[in-house]
Amino acid sequence: MDYYPGSIKTLIKRLARLPGVGRKTAERLAMHILQQPDEEARRLAESIVDLKRKLRLCSRCFSLSDDLLCRICNDPSREGGLVCVVEQPADMASIEKSGAFTGRYHILGGVLSPMDGIGPDDIKIAELVDRVERESIREIILATGTNVEGESTAAYIAEILSTMPVRVTRIASGVPMGGDLKYVDQVTLKRAMESRHGI
What is the pLDDT along the chain (199 residues), one digit of tens a residue? Predict the structure, then answer.
């Protein structure tokens, strides 16, 4: 990379630190930015600085927001009595893209992981309990991952909420649409059998 001036090398190194961006992709991105008009490069830089300056967590659900409340919490057409609990904002975005959910969310900001030193006080579980006590929530849908940490987090939350007047459900998981059974792992098949329903 010695054939590039220092300013380009610095940009390539910084871009290569982004997840999923290797050195070759970073080099292509740097060359693309270089070929853009100055105004476009300035807008890109400003949008990154703006993002870091303005972005905050929603005071209700802990999603990413530019305001005190996020767009979903501010939307009066959303079902306030239905709350889907997810690990991260990206999980919420995936559910939103499906168009299958019309309620609100609660973002935990992670999962329980004693091996990594992450306990109940390190994620937004107390805030969820507080919401159940304050808001008219009739159902909590636990949509954490199906790995060990996600499952234990869901079980922990279900146990805490078991004494409260709210229905607690878990999203179904199992064989994906179009999936061939011989390629599905045993844990997924077991979960699919346990979550079976009438047709």
Answer: 567 888 999 999 999 999 999 999 999 999 999 999 999 999 999 999 999 999 999 999 999 999 999 999 999 999 999 999 999 999 999 899 988 899 999 999 999 998 999 999 999 999 999 999 999 999 999 999 888 899 899 999 999 999 999 999 998 777 677 766 667 777 777 777 777 666 5
How far is it, in rounded angstroms, from Cα 174 to Cα 192? 4
Task: Name the residue among 51, 47, 81, 80 with its Cα closest to residue 66.
Answer: 51
* CATH 1.10.8.420 holds for 6-54: yes
Query: Domain spans of the chain?
Result: 6-54, 78-171
Quickly name the fold that domain 78-171 has. Dna Topoisomerase Vi A Subunit; Chain: A, domain 2 (3.40.1360)
